[in-house]
Amino acid sequence: MQDAFVAFDRVQKSYDGETLVVKDLNLHIGKGEFLTMLGPSGSGKTTCLMMLAGFETATHGEITLDGKPINNIPPHKRGIGMVFQNYALFPHMTVAENLAFPLEVRKIGKSEREEKVLRALDMVQMGDFGGRRPAQLSGGQQQRIALARALVFEPELVLMDEPLGALDKQLRETMQFEITNLAHRLGITVVYVTHDQTEALTMSDRVAVFDDGRIQQLAAPDTLYEEPQNSFVAQFIGENNTLSGRVTRIDGDICEVTLDDGEVIDAVPVNVSAVGDRTLVSIRPERVEMNKDRLAPDAHTLKAEVAEFIYMGDIYRTRLRVAGRDDFIVKTRNAPDQRRLKPGEQIEIGWRPQDCRALDA
Amino acid sequence: MDHKLPPYATTGQRIWFYGFRVLCGLIFFFLMAPILTIIPLSFNAEDFFTFTPGMLAFEPEAYSLKHYVDFFTNPDWQQALRNSVLIAPMATLLAVSLGTLAAIGLSQSHVPFKGTIMAIMISPMIVPLIISAAGMYFFYSRVGLQGTYWGVVLAHAALGIPFVIITVTATLVGFDRSLTRAAASLGANPVTTFFRIQMPLILPGVISGGLFAFITSFDEVVVVIFVGSAGQQTLPWQMFTGLREQISPTILAVATILVVISILLLSVVEILRRRSERLRGMSPG
Predict the structure, then answer these.
(1) Which listed site, A336, B111, B144, B226, has its alpha carbon 20 to 30 Å from B197?
(2) Same structural domain for residues A182 and A251?
(3) pTM score, two decimals?
(4) Contacts of A90 in chain B (CB under 8 A)
């Protein structure tokens, strides 16, 4: 991408001079994009965010913001807004003083300052709370103030470090919606760090999945979920069934996998290259079909035994014993024609070959 | 604390329960009695250090303020008071500035030999005073500070710094580092961040350290005798001289005034400590 607003070029980071926390990171973020860095703890995602904010320095490589290298610019001159995990509101200042702080250090006049503070408070629906202290606010309210403070000086880039981690589920969902709405309305670029995959999928334009200091896959949420490029991404995003086997035939964009117990299935070869490769095939629980009539006549099917049936209201969750494993999950919608299976029942399952991906083992 | 003896307590536990209370009372008596005794004695109408029969009978004419009048009119005492008031605040100011900076520096994660540096800085609190005093005497004589105002101020600042370092370090332990990062991300340079964010939040620690440093200087007699000269005779020094040369109950009046000042200062410390705890409870996470 030529017009990248934020660019990481071959960036490496090591804290001790030996082990690399971030290994060769290349990432281009477009203007106005909402990009999420998703990954387990220790995957390097927060380190990347801190390097962008200026609180950590890259060991190698270059980070550019709007075309200008920022490696040698101190954090306070970068003009990047940031929302912290614990909000980091100044406890000795009122809400309005917290919001006025970035404007004061920019030497903005009093009347303009007050106007901007009010506008920012209204933006997060906290107009009446200017006189309160942070300790007098609930977690969700503090979160909104932290957001308003990061936006009040109109930065073009805002970083968010697991900002919703401390909120309860319902509030988190409301805030996810509000943050994405606000970001799109203001046209700001957001780099968002989280370990919550639902958050990443629902909020982002693109998601960078981090593991072991590298981006494992960078894609839009639907692509990430439906077309994972490797086993890590398939396992990390959403629920996933895996079966291990060996590739026995590759025929263009379809391959044949012989599972460890001898059964044969069709799959899409993703990162297997040759016949004889070990592979983990991945199938999403909602793409497994238990009704044979809905499958193509020549589709491969597997024998399965029901191990457990869980009623979850909107869906049924059935655990099956398949190909020597007993953790194979099938999710079906609670529809009038769906039967509730009983443990011990013998059934046959299948899927469309394109829903089954042969990944690295 | 509502502490009651449970119904199943054994005889041994009962004895310990009441014995402990008596023990605590005795310790309090041991600590407080000498201080409390001097207060009524300082109102003695006679020039004695003992309770007169009239005082014990609570006769009004047995009490008087004459020792206080003596303190406020005697030129020797007034000069000593002036010296103390000139030396203690300046020593406190130095101790607070240097001690706060040292504590902040030592709280950074990248500082090498932190433990050793800390131990050296707080050593004036641990080394016997007479040794520090003798060392300072010889050192200050060499560099021409012995017998000067600044010599005494520097010596007292060195004694006060450990208190400031300890209290400020304790406050910094609870300081949320993401606050300074937040300030930086909002565009504040390190100096602004220090004065607008860090300083207000560690202020209680700074002030209580400063009060300890002030009291240290105000009460100190050993070092000032070594490092100072007649021109720097402070209140404690004058009291010490007074005890040796002319036994006058004016000392008791001065002591009472110093006790009152100490109580006032320590009350301020306690109020600040509570404020600091409240502020810390405020910072989320």
Answers:
(1) B111
(2) no
(3) 0.78
(4) 179, 182-183, 197
